[in-house]
Write a structure and sequence with these properties.
Elements: H1 16-48, H2 50-58, H3 60-71, H4 80-120
Helix pairs in contact: 1-2
Length: about 140
């Protein structure tokens, strides 16, 4: 039988080709998982703002919980404590997301009213005249 391909074995050194294969797979997984995820988050933060991008990332957890329920028997259903903690965590994340969205809507509507009031008191943009009657 052939032993698993590991960089080092207790009995002897395995061929370095196996080590390079594992190193390549680890680097590839790291680039695809972390670098791509960070890039997409940074892009979303530039397009939507950091709060909306972070909230979008947080919604992944309840979506993963729902997907876990729909796709198979999740291991956390075996324990009542695990079910309680999963439900509490999912509900708290969703409550936070909805709470921030509601707070954002109420503050943005207040800002619009405030900016209208400020716009009424802004003087017109006529050219200012210097002391000698000439335009500045």
């Amino acid at each position: 039988w052939q032993r698993a391909c590991t960089p080092l074995s207790l009995r002897n050194l395995q061929p370095l080709a196996c080590a390079f294969k594992h190193l390549f797979l680890a680097l590839h997984a790291g680039v695809m998982d972390y670098v791509l995820a960070d890039y997409t988050w940074a892009r979303a933060a530039l397009l939507l703002g950091p709060t909306a991008a972070t909230l979008g990332m947080n919604v992944q957890i309840p979506i993963a919980t729902l997907g876990d329920l729909l796709l198979g028997h999740p291991h956390w259903l075996d324990s009542r404590l695990a079910v309680a903690l999963t439900v509490a965590g999912t509900v708290s994340i969703l409550a936070g997301v909805f709470g921030i969205n509601l707070a954002g809507e109420s503050s943005s509507s207040g800002t619009e009213l405030g900016s209208q009031a400020v716009d009424e008191h802004v003087p017109s943009h006529e050219p200012l005249l210097a002391a000698g009657g000439e335009e500045a």
